[in-house]
Design brief:
The protein has about 70 residues and is an all-alpha fold. Helix content is about 65%, strand content about 0%. It has three helices and no strands.
Length: about 70
């Protein structure tokens, strides 16, 4: 039997907590940030605020430090 759309609470509560290691989490999110930074650099994406790009680059620097120890 299928549940009606929008009724996902029971499915969420039935599952256990998901845990992800810090290294894996940082590694996956750094891929997203890297994509954003390179897309802005090539002109494929424009950001309304340069501060967002500065923050993304700073986070990438922090991610590199985290991953290399």
């Amino acid at each position: 039997m299928t549940q009606p759309l929008g009724n996902h609470e029971s499915l969420l509560t039935e599952r256990g907590d998901v845990t992800v290691g810090a290294e894996e989490f940082v590694g996956e999110w750094s891929k997203v940030l890297w994509r954003i930074v390179t897309d802005v650099a090539t002109g494929s994406v424009e950001l309304p605020d340069d501060d967002l790009l500065v923050r993304a680059k700073a986070l990438l620097g922090m991610a590199a430090t985290e991953l290399t120890g």
